[in-house]
Amino acid sequence: MNTSHKALLVLLACLIFPLVENTSSAETQNPVVDDVALAEQFVEGLAALVENAPSKTQRTLEAGNALRLLAQTEGTTIQLPDRQHVPAGMTEESLYQRVMPAVVVIGSIYKCDSCNDWHLGSMASGWLLSDDGLVVTNHHVFTEEAHHYFGVMTSDGNVFAVRSILASDRDGDAAIAQLDTRGVVLPSLRLGDPAACGDAVVVISHPAGRFYSLTRGVVSRYHCHDADPATMATSGGASRTPRRRNSDRASRITPAPVWMSVTADYAVGSSGGPVFNSSGSVIGMVSRTYATQPSKNHRRHDSFGNQMVFKDCVSLDTILGLIENTN
Length: 327
What we know:
This protein is α+β, with helices and mostly antiparallel strands and 327 residues long. The protein has helices at 3-16, 35-51, 63-72, 92-99, 316-320; strands spanning 20-22, 31-33, 78-79, 103-111, 118-128, 134-137, 149-153, 159-169, 174-180, 200-205, 213-223, 242-244, 253-255, 259-262, 274-276, 282-291, 309-315, 323-324.
């Protein structure tokens, strides 16, 4: 068999197997992720949902409506149905395979002024909180330009329309949306107990379109500060600074959100990715990074002022604040 024939067989194999498929090796059983195919499947699947909707009001969520719903649902809580618990005592390998189906891609598509094709807009991460289509991600994921349409894709390539936003927390960078599951019972994740500093964590997300990447680390610290790093409190105390939720609730003062920093790596596209403990329960969610700037004041030691990247995650506290009866 010549080289060209071998290449053709490899190509056919990639087309035949699902977009995320386990390898045949009994030793590893590692899912193989096709990044390009998943991105294409997302655009094609979401475009079909938008174009085939019976009416404009039944289309998947559009960015302009998303901004309106974020404002309307600020501070709102939801009721959560009973969910099946994730088994405890899993190894990291089985954790990845167990939780992967409930970790989703969330993003948008849009049409430009130059052609009739649908284009990929933003891509981020998220996770399923219930089998009836409650999905959790960052608040900022839904702050897209007008005429972008949002959708969610599971690891098997199924694409679902985002119908509405049910609860949101702008300052805490969290939102819970409702999918149109089309009657499909979806996998879901369990919320865990708060992790202590030094506890091991696992992040599964989609950094820079590298879908379903797993990174490890520990909880670095818990902290609270304003959204602008330049206004971070310099005090070492644990007191919270007050914040206002929005203009139409100006009389309601609430504490600043508590953030959880981790050492597990992530990048653009990881926003909304779940942070797991060693049992596979969600104990936080990726939000943002903050990089220190090299200092010009330390001329005697080159090592002083080197850049450090802080990885701030939505805390379990903030997530639970969007859910009723979580005690």
